[in-house]
UniProtKB/TrEMBL annotation:
Its EC number is 6.1.1.2. ATP binds at residues 11-13, 19-20, 150-152, 265-269. InterPro entries: aa-tRNA-synth_I_CS (IPR001412), aa-tRNA-synth_Ic (IPR002305), Rossmann-like_a/b/a_fold (IPR014729), Trp-tRNA-ligase (IPR002306), Trp-tRNA-ligase_bac-type (IPR024109), Trp-tRNA_synthetase (IPR050203). Gene3D superfamilies: HUPs (3.40.50.620), Tyrosyl-Transfer RNA Synthetase (1.10.240.10). A motif ('KMSKS' region) lies at residues 265-269. The gene is trpS. L-tryptophan binds at residue 138. Keywords: Aminoacyl-tRNA synthetase, ATP-binding, Cytoplasm, Ligase, Nucleotide-binding, Protein biosynthesis. Pfam families: tRNA-synt_1b. A motif ('HIGH' region) lies at residues 12-20. This is Tryptophan--tRNA ligase. It is found in: Cytoplasm. Belongs to the class-I aminoacyl-tRNA synthetase family.
Length: 400
């Protein structure tokens, strides 16, 4: 298996709801079983749109981390940290800005889209224009290979790949690259050097992607290579100069179809959410008062589940038997709507129970959360510092 490093961030702009759970967090919990994962609170990204309401960000940061832990993100498997506690992200953002054509940023689709959507705010700022570049810095600084994102964010990953390519193109050249690369191949030792050469030839002459992957894997396993030699050998594989920044891949998370209380997609802006750790009384009340098929005015009127938001929640939470019971009961007026809602209420409460319990642990002892984040930030900073050393060197910023 190729060594994948997964990284994703979330903006702390309010409390998380079940839509976040079904759309994003469930996926994080799965990925932490398979990959080295880094998940972070993108507080600087939140400031690009919420610069005038920093209190919201401040309130949301710890709540969001508790929400992550509540759903089962496991600090023993994933590294959790806060963006602004790793100031190296800002340094990389600045350095990358030197080579970022303004037109590239202006053409990222979210730039205009968000300005239109959030028209009550002035998003004509320098910071907001730089949003995708800050995201690139987040990703490139950890040399992440996989970035789980929703569809709207795919252009940001594409943009990041272009920035990495441009950076390597401008700064990856060094005099005598070919000789230095060949010397580095020798350092791999007889057998491995031969294998590397074979795989490189196969890729370069026949475009054999498998050979490329195997060669990368081989390099990943070489503990004793210096960072510079590693970059040379990665770059030499694909023909260019040194590869200092790595191009990440978007890992597309299927769009969340989690319905809200009114049948539209669950979203804070529709005011139709159930928050992750909402108390039982409130959850019960919200579902009990959900609208149903408008044609079903009296208990004796038959209904049509297709026209009912409750049915959509059954799709998420109910098994075949229950769904059958709903279909039958609704279309024959055999069950009432309150009755129909009960299995949904039970299922949501059951889903939330372990979340509430885990969260309680952290609410009772906030230092646990602080320590998890401190450890995560420390680990993140170490990796970020390694990349920054290479970046500064490549850009001629090491004056000794
Ligand atoms: N822009 C992302 C969003 O709105 C959040 C984010 C910031 C992010 N930095 C990132 C996601 C790096 C993935 C990787 O959802
Ligand atoms: Fe909706 Fe169920 Fe009432 Fe039918 S019985 S209208 S599906 S809540």
């Amino acid at each position: 298996m190729l060594v994948d490093r997964v990284l994703s961030g979330m903006r702390p702009t309010g409390s998380l709801h079940l839509g976040h759970y079904h759309g994003v967090l469930k996926n994080w919990v799965e990925m932490q079983q398979k990959y080295e994962c880094f998940f972070f609170v993108a507080d600087w990204h939140a400031l690009t749109t919420h610069y005038d309401t920093p209190q919201i960000i401040e309130q949301s940061v710890w709540d969001m981390v508790i929400d992550w832990l509540a759903v089962g993100v496991d600090p023993a498997r994933a590294t959790l940290f806060i963006q602004s506690r790793v100031p190296e992200h800002a340094e990389l953002h600045l350095l990358l800005s030197m080579i970022t054509p303004r037109g590239w940023l202006e053409r990222v689709p979210t730039y205009k889209d968000q300005q239109e959507k959030l028209s009550e705010k002035d998003l004509g700022t320098y910071g907001f224009l730089g949003y995708p570049l800050l995201q690139s810095a987040d990703i490139l600084i950890y040399r992440a290979t996989q970035v789980p994102v929703g569809e709207d964010q795919v252009p940001h990953i594409e943009f990041t790949r272009e920035i990495a390519r441009r950076f390597n193109h401008i700064y990856g050249r060094e005099s005598g690259f070919e000789e230095k690369a060949k010397a580095a191949v020798k350092k791999l030792g007889g057998k491995k050097a031969k294998l590397y050469d074979e795989l490189r030839t196969r890729y370069q002459e026949q475009g054999d992607d498998e050979a490329l992957q195997s060669a990368k894997l081989l390099l990943d396993e070489q503990q004793s290579l210096s960072m510079s030699d590693r970059e040379r050998l990665f770059g030499y594989l694909e023909g260019g100069g040194k590869m200092i920044l790595f191009e990440p891949h978007a890992m597309l998370t299927a769009a969340s179809k989690m319905p809200g209380l009114d049948g539209q997609k669950m979203s804070k802006s529709y005011n139709n959410t159930i928050s992750l750790r909402e108390d039982e009384v409130s959850v019960t009340k919200k579902i009990r008062t959900m609208p149903t098929d408008p044609a079903r005015v009296r208990r004796t009127d038959v209904g049509n589940p297709e026209k009912c938001p409750v049915w959509q929640l059954h799709q998420v939470y109910s098994n075949e038997d229950t769904k059958h019971w709903v279909q039958q009961g609704c279309t024959s007026a055999g069950i009432g709507c309150i009755e129909c809602k009960q299995p949904v209420i039970d299922a949501v409460l059951a889903e939330q129970k372990p979340m509430r319990e885990r969260a309680q642990l952290y609410l009772d002892d906030p230092t646990l959360v602080r320590n998890i984040i401190s450890d995560g930030c420390e680990k993140a900073r170490k990796l970020a510092a390694e990349t920054m050393r290479d970046v500064r060197e490549a850009m001629g910023l090491i004056y000794s």
